[in-house]
Every structure is written in C-alpha cells, then in structure tokens.
UniProtKB/TrEMBL annotation, chains A, B:
InterPro entries per record: HTH_MarR-typ, MarR/SlyA-like, Tscrpt_reg_MarR-type_CS, WH-like_DNA-bd_sf, WH_DNA-bd_sf
Keywords from the UniProt entry: DNA-binding, Transcription, Transcription regulation
The organism's taxonomic lineage, starting at the top: Bacteria, Pseudomonadati, Pseudomonadota, Alphaproteobacteria, Hyphomicrobiales
One Gene Ontology term from the biological process aspect of the record: response to stress
Residue stretches making up the HTH marR-type domain: 19-153
Protein name according to UniProt: MarR family transcriptional regulator
SUPFAM superfamilies per UniProt: Winged helix' DNA-binding domain
Any one Gene Ontology molecular-function term assigned to this protein's record: DNA binding
SMART domains linked to this entry: HTH_MARR
Length: 164, 164
DNA sequence: GCCAATTGCTTGAAGTTTAAAGAAATTGCA
DNA sequence: TGCAATTTCTTTAAACTTCAAGCAATTGGC
C-alpha cells in the first residue's frame, strides 16, 4: 500500500482553494464598492447605477454609439440596453437616430441635458472612488492595476477556451 | 501672476484618474468572471448564480441560518432573500423552520437533495475558478489577495464614514 | 407590567437582467 | 439575381434586485 499517494489524494484532491478565496475576495470588494456607488448615486442624484453606466459610455464619444456597441461595452445583453435606452430617451437624457445607410442601426447620443447632468455626477463619482481607494498608496494602485490586468487576460483566455 | 499655481489648477483639478481606472478594471474583471460562472452554471447544471450563491452560504453551516444572516453574508437586501428562499424551498433544495424561542425567526437549511446537488456543483465551480486564474503565479495570487484585502478595508472605511 | 424602539421578515412597485425567440435589414456567395 | 446566413434590434417571460412601507414579535427602559 502506497501511503504517500493515498494521503495526497485525500488531502489534496487538487488544491484550488486559494483561487476560490481570491475570487470571493474580488467579488466582495466589487460588491461593496458597487453598493456604495449605487447608494450615493441614488441619494445625491436620484439616478440608478445602470443609467449612470450607460451615460458614462456615451460620454466618452461625441458622435454617438449603436445599441450593439453599448451592450458589448457594458457587458450586458442587447435586450437590456433596449429597455435602458428607452427610459433614458423618455426622460430626455438620450437621443436616438436611425442610421441612413443601415436601417437596423440606431445611433444613440447624450442630449445636451443628458451630458450636463452626467458631467455633474461624474465629477462627484470620481471623488467618491478616490476616497474609496484612499488607503492605497500609489504603488499599491499600480500593483493592483498590473495584477488585475493579468487576471483579466487569464479570465478571457479561460472564457474563450470554453466557448471554442 | 503666478504661473505655477495657475498651471497646477488647470492640469490637476485633483487627479483622481488612476483610482477611477482602477475601479473600472476591478469591475471589468469581476463582471467578466461572474458572467463566465453564470453561463457555466446554467449550461452544466441549469441553475442561476444567485441560487448557487445562496446554497454556498448554507453549505458552510450544518445547522441552518436565518434570513437576516443570509442577506448580510450575501450583501443583498432582505426582500431579495425572501424570494430566493421561497423558490428554493419550492424546488425542494431548502427547508425552513420557525424558531421556537422567537417566532419572527426562520431557520433555513439545505435539504439532503439540496446539499448533494450543491456539492456536485461546487466541485466543478472550484475547477472553473482555478482555470480562470490559471495564468497567475502563486506569488501573483498572494499579492492580489493582500492588495484586495487592503482595498476592502479602505472601501469599508469610506462607506462607514459616509453613513456616519 | 407597560409601551416605545428595535428586529425579523414579507409585500409591492419599479427597475434591471438574462435567455430565448423573433422581426427586419443587410451581406455574401453561388 | 436569388436566397441562405448574419447582424441589429425588439420582444417576451421569468427571475432577480432594490427600496420603502408595513406587520408581527421581541426587547429594553421605566
């Protein structure tokens, strides 16, 4: 009887505990910060996080974006974006225009109102985030950025391998 | 005229850009992994992520947990947990029992079926996560753990300061 | 013991989210 | 050209989520 291999098999049926703990910690951090941002957005601006996120994507460009672009960037489903855009057009923050060369395509832009309101929120938002990470040194931040970039690459590789 | 202070004021109206980029990267990582886990859970086990998360909390304990405990640990609202538990009791995965000493309190446990199914899923889940972080060295993982712990502490401090 | 405050949970409304199916338009290829 | 794939977007159903209001039970002064 091979005691070594027996013991190993029982105690280390592949030790993936550290990765799991890492994932849970990552998730906890994100959930915590997301909840905080959500609360503050509601409290100070009476706006939901998804709407803020959508406007943030649109604020980056001047000439509009299609629904598909939005759903890819926000990493949510197409149908989801349809509904969000609908409500934001309704409230006067967004402007939708059908493409002249491809009638399936809708270009979405921030209205003047939408951009003005977003800019106000974004300024505050940036301060909140700075405060949230206030205990981290510049070096900590650089290191986190680097490691998260590596993690992102790894996760993309893993996701791609599955769907292939 | 003081050129220095002028320039500074224009170019650095508080530079919080790095923190914001860090937050977006953190969020992207989490969203990416979460989406991957969600897909695989649905695909292989036909279960939703929230249900898996809830069962994961209950699997840690043998003698059950109250709804409040669950909502605190999962960092979601009370009403949310009520609905989730309801559906999982319905499907035979959970068991609810009213406390004898405090009739407001409900103790929730995994049924035999629930625990068996969860264990199967958890084994697979752990492998997925190990693969997701597969490109990271043990040292990378240790560093990420450390920095995320620091970030979590910082975020908690920030959240607490606001609500105070 | 009384009763205001607190705690545990549920409910209802509004919104977000996904997955899946489908409609409309365009593209590419034989 | 013809028409099968593809792309873009919408729709639908079910589930998830939050917030706020509310109910019932318990607790902590007094």
């Amino acid at each position: 009887m091979n005691l070594d291999s027996e013991t190993k098999a029982v105690e280390l049926p592949d030790d993936h505990g550290t990765e799991l703990r890492l994932w849970l910690r990552l998730l906890t951090c994100t959930t915590l910060i997301e909840g905080e941002v959500r609360s503050r957005l509601r409290e100070k601006f009476d706006v939901t996080l998804p709407r803020f996120d959508l406007m943030a994507q649109l604020d980056k460009v001047s000439d509009g974006m299609t629904l598909s672009d939005l759903s890819k960037r926000m990493m949510v489903s197409n149908g989801n974006v349809t509904g969000l855009v609908e409500r934001l057009v309704e409230s006067g923050h967004l402007d939708r225009r059908t493409s002249e060369t491809d009638r399936r395509v809708q270009f979405i832009r921030l209205t003047k109102l939408g951009r003005a309101e977003f800019r106000k929120m974004a300024t505050e938002h940036e301060k909140w985030i700075a405060d949230v990470f206030g205990d981290l040194s510049p070096k900590d931040i650089r290191e986190l950025m680097r490691l998260l970039a590596k993690a992102k690459g790894s996760a993309q590789r893993s996701a791609k391998a599955r769907s292939a």
